[in-house]
Amino acid sequence: MQEQLIFKDRTKLSPRYIPKELPHRQKQIDLLKRIFSSIKNDPDKYPLTILQIIGPTGIGKTSTLIKFANLLQEELADNKISSKIVYINLKLLGGNKYAIYKYILGSIAPELPAQGLSAEEMLRQMIDYLDKTSSYALIILDEIDYLIKISKDIGIIYDLTRLTEFYPTKRCNVKGVIFIARSTEFYEKLDAAELSSLGRVAIEFPTYTINQVSDIIMQRSEEAFIEKVIGPDIIDWIARILISPSVNGDIRYALDLLTYSGNLAENEGTGKILIEQVKKVHQQIFNGITDEDIKELSKGEIVSLLAIIRGIRLKQREYTELKEIEMQAIEIAENNNIKNMDIYDSLDELSAKKIITVQSLKKIFLGSASIDDLEKILVKRLDAIKS
Ligand SMILES: Nc1ncnc2c1ncn2[C@@H]1O[C@H](COP(=O)(O)OP(=O)(O)OP(=O)(O)O)[C@@H](O)[C@H]1O
Ligand SMILES: [Mg+2]
Does 218 sit in the ligand 1 pocket, CB within 6 Å? Predict the structure, then answer.
């Protein structure tokens, strides 16, 4: 039997791969280019510029910034200006100021030993090194909201937004510090001085529209799959799922769907990806609730899920709100003689298990495809454990 090939290059679906073109992010790249464009004319006159990039998960913030930084570096090189780009994912590096500054110093001046230096001395060494070597730096700090959430007092926002004051006798050749976050909620944890030097104006990255999502997944599919493996019906279907409020435009989810569906098509030898295969994968990986999950649900969790299902049905929307869930849960508990149930605990548990998504108190989503089927199973399960 001839092997039915599906993938041309499956690494092109990896969330870490940055494609040559980023469709529908050119506007953001152009804006960033404009902001930093005059560095090349006279870098010493260009002031330290602090920027924030804000937008929900999986909509291309990291990819766009890395792409932009590389373009900027090339442009500066064309103008005989040497530059260093430092990109740090603060979530991966953890909440330690020392480790962060060590990483920055190491990226800018790899030949300098960081051993035995204090955090502040490392920043000073970095400024010194850039000055001596007449090179200029852009520092990108990704997932700053995560860092502030886990360790708010480490002061890196203060230090890095005031690098010019940090070592006033030297030229500060760091020209840009860019912070990336999912939302502005982390502002609440900052003090007045940090907020003021950070500035409250952010560049917001919007979520993609359905047509934009289609373009993006089509482009990634063309790179990853052999021709004709994936049809327009599948692109449309995935795009529709992607813009639903519970996925909220997260391109990573589309890449997962494509990868797993491709694997399935390969295993089943279908020669192309079938819509049933995509639907099956979606059911399995999307917040979905598996048989295993259902077996392990506590009484409180079952009641909460039933309450959510009823709330969703009542409002005829994809989500429901906490108040509605409370009311429904009380009624269900009463009808089933269930006492002492903490629905807040149950909702936390369900959210931790990714069975539900709590976007806000007014928007609680259930990831399951069919609420009718799920309801039937849950009612049975509740009857079984009640008796
Ligand atoms: N316009 C686009 N064109 C092609 N691929 C894209 C585009 N936008 C996002 N992607 C892809 O989606 C994935 C997620 O993007 P990225 O990591 O940049 O998101 P993010 O906004 O930084 O998310 P998070 O907040 O979770 O870090 C990456 O694989 C990226 O290549
Ligand atoms: Mg990111």
Answer: no
Q: Is 61 near ligand 1, meaning CB less than 6 Å away?
A: yes
**In the chain, what are the domains?**
26-204 (3.40.50.300), 208-285 (1.10.8.60), 291-386 (1.10.10.10)
**Nearest residue CA, atom 31 of ligand 1?**
18
| Residue environment code for 342-363, b if the CB has 16+ CB neighbours within 10 A, otherwise e | ebeebbebbeeeebbbeeeeeb
Q: Give the number of the ligand closest to the Cα of residue 54.
A: 1
Q: Sorting pLDDT into bands at 50, 70 and 90, what band is 91?
A: confident
Residues with CB under 5 A from ligand 2 (ion): 62
DSSP string computed for 30-42 = HHHHHHHGGGGT-
Q: Is the pLDDT of residue 3 over 70?
A: no
Task: Tell me the per-residue pLDDT of 217-261, one tens digit each, with 9 for 90 and over.
Answer: 999 999 999 999 999 999 999 999 999 876 889 999 999 999 999
Distance, in Å, from the CA atom of 331 to the CA atom of 325, rounded to the nearest integer, reads: 10
Pocket perturbation via mutation, ligand 1, pick of 21, 26, 57, 62 by most ligand atoms within 8 A of CB: 62
pLDDT tens per residue across span 353-384: 778 888 888 888 886 656 777 888 888 888 88
Please tell me the pTM assigned to this model. Answer: 0.79
How far, in Å, is the centroid of ligand 2 from the Cα of 233? 29
What 3-state DSSP class applies to 89?
A: strand
